[in-house]
Amino acid sequence: MKIGFWKDKINTWKPFVAGIITAFILTAIIFALPLKVISTEVTETYYVTEMKQEPYTATEPYETEEAYEKAMVFADGFYKVVPSGIITPFYIDKPDARIIGKFENPIPGSFVIITTPNRILWETYGSRGTVELPLSQGQYRAKFQENVMWGEDCYIYLATKWTETHQVTRYKETIKYQEVPIQVEKQRTIIKQERISVWKQIFK
Q: Residue 2 pLDDT more than 50?
């Protein structure tokens, strides 16, 4: 009787135990599937192209006026002294011109600058001397004369000088800027979604 009783009990529990085991296996399988969706913040590095102002040196032409001094020589050499004197005529045709010169003679004498109507504008006396005199436009004469002795060689230099301006091209270095592309590293936070199993969610 007792053996039959336990056999009946075992036969009754078998389906129950099998059901529990089946339920556990199904639950384990379901928990292993990636059914859970979680959101996490992730810092992402990315690169963008930006334009940057970069300096560089450039050579540029420019126009300017510059002053130049010019000269015209009327006399430059040795001349024989005569009783009437050494006369050198010259003409000033430039505005703001000046006469420059010098003389050297063994015997002292007078050196004068004379206008056309024989008016003395400038005079010096001696065996040597220099002259620098601004003159207006017109006809003039330079004269060296001595009354003691004639025939000697007298050195005379005479020239007019004036200033003129000319348009010239010069070059200068300037700083300019140009846009160049550069790669810039940036970071941003994004929300990343991931599916995980229930087991992973429980045991993480």
A: no
